[in-house]
Design brief:
It is elongated, with a radius of gyration of 22 Å. It folds into two domains: 1-92, no CATH class; 115-186. 56% of the residues lie in helices and 10% in strands. The chain is mostly helical. The longest helix is centred in the last third of the chain and has 30 residues, at 122-151. The relative contact order is 0.07. Keywords: Coiled coil.
Length: 186
Amino acid sequence: MRYEKEKQKVEDEEIEVEVTIEDGPSVIEVIRFDLMRDKFIFSSEAFFSNTLYRAIFDEACGKVSDESFVCDRYFLTHHDPGISKLATDLISDKYQLSKIHAKSIGESEDEKSSRLRERNSLDKLVIRATTELKNAHVMQRINEVKKNIETADAQQQMELMNELRQLQDLKKVLAKNLGERIILRY
């Protein structure tokens, strides 16, 4: 469980109260569980091609049991300048939501329970992001297998064709979860 201090008014006095902000598994625990459950990672070296992403993932997984770990603060002030810069880029908002959009649904981004705050939709956003990551990994693997088929002998081609079929079946399942349409070429 994670807490943050929140100011509340009690009678005419303003006091700080610790409020639960995260109950249940953390985001990194959900990501790690989802990828390992679907056998996408046995170790992060095999899955992440970008060394900075791998380093962040490994460190975050290592700090999961630390109750006082605040990932954004930790990675923003990381001793490795590459990780610190990447964390800054990932955390900063590149685009600002239009006030017209907020008015159209009758909410303000400042409200704690607003649908416009990403924190309130993490359960859906994290699952979608991990599914997109798995889909990208499968697409990359499909391209590798296709290249290997061109240079393989007859026996290897049969094995690679079977692997390609399995990957394409997996791609269909992931695309269905993502709500994408698959266009088949004949």
